[in-house]
Specification:
The protein has helices at 26-35, 54-67, 80-93, 109-125, 140-150, 171-178, 215-221, 243-262, and strands at residues 4-8, 40-44, 70-74, 97-100, 129-133, 155-159, 182-187, 189-194, 201-206, 230-233. The protein is of the alpha/beta class and 266 residues long. The protein has a single domain (4-262), classed as Divalent-metal-dependent TIM barrel enzymes (TIM Barrel, Alpha-Beta Barrel), CATH 3.20.20.150. The strands form 2 sheets. An 8-stranded parallel β-barrel has the order 1-2-3-4-5-6-7-10, surrounded by 7 helices. The protein has a two-stranded antiparallel ribbon with strand order 8-9. Strand 8 (189-194) and strand 9 (201-206) form a beta hairpin. The longest helix has 20 residues, at 243-262. The protein starts with a strand and ends with a helix. The relative contact order is 0.15.
Length: 266
């Protein structure tokens, strides 16, 4: 069975930024997602979204519906008022999944379960699901403990093992630890290269299938809890010497990722 493939705004990061002389709009990214054969588009860490009014949100929803693309959202933080705002945006867009991140500077981990409890109950009643992403500011062990404590089918983990390397966690350990709670996958490849002069390393993105991400093992690990998980493509694409090269490589990386996932049967 082929995975359900989606694209994130992180797969278009340079193309919707000021690097692009004609930055892509949300509608253009959604249409491009459909043309590439992906089924899901995750609007993730995209600040302009919060500035859109009701009429503009309806236009985005109509574009997605007419393109046959399922929308998801992504933000940061777990404060109740912030997540409630995103719940409203999700309902306006017809989205049912929101990715967020625990930010210890904003919310101590020991307070997170109490803070999330009421929000997750509300999400469940509204038919929404929340996924908290693995990344370096909170250990995967603490993240699993948080999700297990809240213990709601409306709350899970967005698995992105490359994010945890900066916290000295091995990607394979993160995958194994979080697998039973995963409700969304972020797919981006990564690699280490030596710094000039052999002093230190550079940790960065690379085209999918060419780096250290063990996608097959990752997919196999989540099979037991996989009820149609969305495999959302992202990139850590370093900026190139020119805008043209940067925009070109982003398109190429996206196409390679879609081809790679489409040829894989996890």
């Amino acid at each position: 069975m082929s995975p359900i493939i989606g694209l994130s705004t992180y797969a278009y990061l340079w193309r919707w930024s000021e690097v692009n002389p004609e930055p892509m709009t949300l509608q253009e990214m959604i249409i491009d997602t459909a043309e590439l054969g992906a089924e899901v588009f995750q609007i993730c860490d995209y600040p302009p979204l919060e500035m859109l009014g009701s009429a503009e949100l309806r236009k985005v929803r109509r574009t997605a519906e007419s393109s046959g693309v399922v929308l998801e959202l992504g933000t940061r933080g777990i404060r109740r008022e912030h997540l409630q705002r995103y719940a409203q945006i999700a309902e306006s867009l017809g989205a049912t999944f929101i990715r967020s991140m625990v930010q210890p500077r904003d919310t101590p981990v020991k307070e997170a379960a109490d803070l999330l409890g009421g929000t997750v109950d509300d999400f469940s009643a509204r038919g929404l699901r929340l996924g908290l992403e693995t990344y370096e500011q909170i250990s995967s062990l603490d993240l699993v403990g948080l999700v297990a404590t809240v213990d709601s089918p409306a709350l899970g983990i967005v698995l992105d093992p490359g994010n945890c390397v900066a916290n000295l966690e091995l990607p394979g350990d993160v995958v194994e630890r979080t697998a039973p709670w995963v409700n969304n996958l972020h797919i981006k490849d990564f690699t280490f290269t030596r710094q000039p002069g052999w002093v230190g390393f550079h940790f960065s993105g690379t085209p999918l299938g060419e780096g250290l991400l063990d996608y097959s093992s990752m997919s196999e690990a989540v099979k037991a809890s996989d009820r149609g998980l969305h495999h959302i493509i992202e990139h850590w694409l370093p900026r190139r010497d020119s805008p043209e090269e940067t925009l070109r490589d982003e398109r190429l990386w996206t196409q390679q990722a879609i081809d790679y996932l489409g040829s894989t049967n996890p």
